[in-house]
Amino acid sequence: MRRRRWPLLPRDPRGVARLVARATGLRAEVLGGSLVLTRTDCPVRAETVRRVADAFTGSFTGDADWEAVEGCPVEMPLDADDVAVPDLVVRSPAAGGRPVLAVEVVPRGEKGSGLAGKAEWYAVAHLPFLLVLDPREAAWSLRSRSGGARFACVRRGAYGEEVDLPAPLGRALPTAGLPVH
After folding, report:
1. Which of 1, 8, 60, 155 gives 20 to 30 Å between its CA and that of 91?
2. What phi and psi values does residue 93 have, to the nearest 5 degrees?
3. What is the pTM (predicted TM-score) of this model?
């Protein structure tokens, strides 16, 4: 009798997330041990990410120290299987590529306050800054100084107001003209 060969399936959560992402086209993340799937085909989200990335590229043209990267994973320290994939990451290749700022665009179907649990995850992962853009409300919030399970400082504003990014970024990000739902 001939033995059946089954395809090798990943045994780690991150490998499963990669497999699911390739098979479905969804963004797959492992947050706190749970597999989270997110749609990425919303045109408002795509246009928002493109404009923010363009703004970073334009404002950092004199700074070769920073780059804006879409779909770059952020790992939980000491647990490479616990990983989030923000819409956009600003990082310094010279400093080992560690993300300094994550940008999340709230999906149209998001219930509640918009990514509150994910913000806590980023704080625990010691990400210095998290910018959440909400096209449903035409509002933004910048979280900074992660310590423990939450960010110590939260600044809020509306589209049209610039987001003042603290050091080491030290730039103002324009939000006028960002698309809304």
Report:
1. 155
2. -60, -30
3. 0.83
Is residue 155, in this structure, part of any structural domain at all?
Answer: yes
CB-based burial of residue 69 (10 Å sphere; 0-12 exposed, 13-18 middle, 19+ buried)? middle
Question: Is 13 part of any domain?
Answer: no
Q: How many structural domains are present in the chain?
A: 1
The single residue listed with the structure tokens 């085909």 is: 41
129: CATH: 3.90.1570.10
Range of the domain at 68: 40-173
pLDDT in tens, the chain (181 residues): 566 666 677 888 888 888 888 888 888 888 888 888 877 778 999 999 999 998 877 655 455 578 899 988 888 888 888 888 899 999 887 777 889 999 999 988 777 665 777 888 899 888 999 999 999 999 999 999 866 778 989 999 999 999 999 988 888 999 999 999 8
How far is the C-alpha of 143 from the C-alpha of 156, rounded, in Å? 9
User: Which tokens is 77 given?
Assistant: 């320290």
